[in-house]
Amino acid sequence: MTTFQYLWRFIMYRPGRYFINAIAWTIIYLAPIVPGLITKQFFDSLTGNSMLGYGVWGLIALLIAAALGRICLIIIGFITDVHFRFRMGMLLRRNLLEHVLKQPGAQAIPVSPGEAISHFRDDVDQSEEAVSWSVDVFGLTCFAIVSGYILIRIDAQMTMLVFLPIVLVITAAQLATVRLQKYRAASREATSKVTGEISEMFGNVQAIQVAGAEDRVIERFRSFGDNRRKAMLKDRLMTELLDSVFSNSVNLGTGLILLLAGTKMRAGTFTVGDFALFVYYLTFVTQFITNVGKFITYFKQMSVSLERLTFLLQGASAKVLTMVNSLHLKPGRAEKSEDRGRKSEDAALGDKRGVRQGERETPGAASGEKQSENVKLESGAELQRLDVKGLSYAYADTGRGISDIHFSLRRGSFTVVTGAIGSGKTTLVRSLLGLLPKGKGTIAWNGVPVEDPGTFFTPPRSAYTAQVPRLYSDTLRNNILLGQAEQNDSLQQALHAAVLEYDVAQLPGGLDTVIGPRGVKLSGGQAQRTAAARMLVRDAELYVFDDLSSALDVETEQKLWERMFQRRSDATCLVVSHRKTALTRADHIIVMKEGRIEAEGTSEELLQRSSTFRELWYGDERQSE
Ligand SMILES: Nc1ncnc2c1ncn2[C@@H]1O[C@H](COP(=O)(O)OP(=O)(O)OP(=O)(O)O)[C@@H](O)[C@H]1O
């Protein structure tokens, strides 16, 4: 998408608002025409050349009225501009956020969170700025045309001198834009790096302290800061240089007018009023020149922002950014325009992903309001059998991952994926659940192919506990429910099943204790059991656990499995583990080695056949001892 198309799509998002804003600012910019003409009459009346018979005080009253009128217009203009700009920025941020949230969870953003925040903040502001300034350029061009016409009728030669700087400025701006764009891109990149580094440092304070790496980290931060300083200096210098070209070319024009006006006034072809009018309009022509220059600069900077925002989309069409979508400013309209947005998004993506299965099978589940309610599984969709064939995924940067994975899960079965560190266990479950971009292979739920696992494998079909649990700075209750409505004793049951009831009783505020970064810090095991409770509170057909054992003792893990099956004997489980607690319970074990299935079977069978399995089994025994 070109920068112009990008700008145009913003305008077409709310054409009515853009039009009203453009009209308001065109009137504001045209308004000085009137006081200019009154000023001319004022001076002409002093020298007896005035054709209007208002007298000096009448003209002064008119000037004051024109000034007051312009003040009112400017207030209206600011209101229309704020409304328009606000919507542009909101749309862009909303679409970006929606896109990020729809990405396969494990690779939602291609940069650090700090860098992503910098894109959300600076690049969105920059885009908003350019669209907003396009309105000013239109208004000022109208002013230039009307004032140009009036001035040409008075004196064509002098008019040329007033407008000559425009040509100079536009040429200068065009010549400088390539360099400016380069400097702007570099300064943005450097700012993102600094923001990214701050977020990394804040997130890893403990790791830095225990490694005694404070000085080295500060040194690294300083080098990022230095790079930013250099890049910003070049960017600023170039911008200021252009600004000075804009304003000084106007000063040149003023000087030329003064020189010529003296000669012409002596010859009697130019009145004092004409001179006053030229000087009065010159101020606004200056504004026109400066603002055209600014717009050209903003437009070029917008193309840098577009590039950076498109990078965040990870290959999706840039049209996603300006997709027509509801901003939910008026709740009644939300759902209707949500549909509109969704349709246009599918069209923009060339419907690559097909109809998202999750939405097709749970109509209405996409609406923000309905998401907080518990979604029920439609009858007949209960998991009977899950078949995985030829599942493969390779990480782009390392080329490692999983290859040619085949297995089936029956209803109520307990399958354990095991293997050495880095053998591909996590990649296997993430690929299955669509948390990684789609690789090769097929997945079938009761024989029906799953087209988009990312939206399909969500509650009530499946629930997942990741290896590293993520908790919010919020109450324990909200961390478990994540917006889901509490039903009867569902929360208590989930706490019991996750063996968390004792821990909750110990917390000062029970379930209402704030945990996470700004609250009580939970132990690793408590955090993982909170994540398990979050999963168990959502009744699902398929439960996927990625290595619970790392933070649970054998006894607690034993209890967790027992309680889970007491509560849901029909639940199907896929569990990543190397613990005997899970392995002895398993109906089926998959042994992974270097991204492939090395062996399969029950623990008795594998003890006979697989050396890898024997190592894991006896390794666990040694650990327990
Ligand atoms: N984000 C990533 N980018 C690149 N390569 C990765 C990424 N994550 C994992 N890998 C590589 O893919 C392979 C499989 O990793 P995976 O995390 O699936 O192993 P695992 O068996 O779950 O390990 P662990 O028991 O330590 O959790 C490893 O060689 C690993 O280095």
From TrEMBL:
Its main location: membrane. Residues 332-376 are annotated as: Disordered. Residues 386-619 form the ABC transporter domain. It holds the Pfam family ABC_membrane. It is found in: Cell membrane. It comes from the Bacteria. GO terms for molecular function: ATP binding. Keywords: ATP-binding, Membrane, Nucleotide-binding, Transmembrane, Transmembrane helix. InterPro entries: AAA+_ATPase, ABC1_TM_dom, ABC1_TM_sf, ABC_transporter-like_ATP-bd, P-loop_NTPase, Type_1_exporter. It is a multi-pass membrane protein. CDD domains: ABC_6TM_exporters (cd07346). Residues 332-362 have a biased composition (Basic and acidic residues). Residues 30-301 form the ABC transmembrane type-1 domain. SMART domains: AAA. The chain crosses the membrane at residues 18-38, 58-84, 130-152, 158-178, 275-299. This is ATP-binding cassette domain-containing protein. The lineage of its organism: Bacteria, Bacillati, Bacillota, Bacilli, Bacillales.
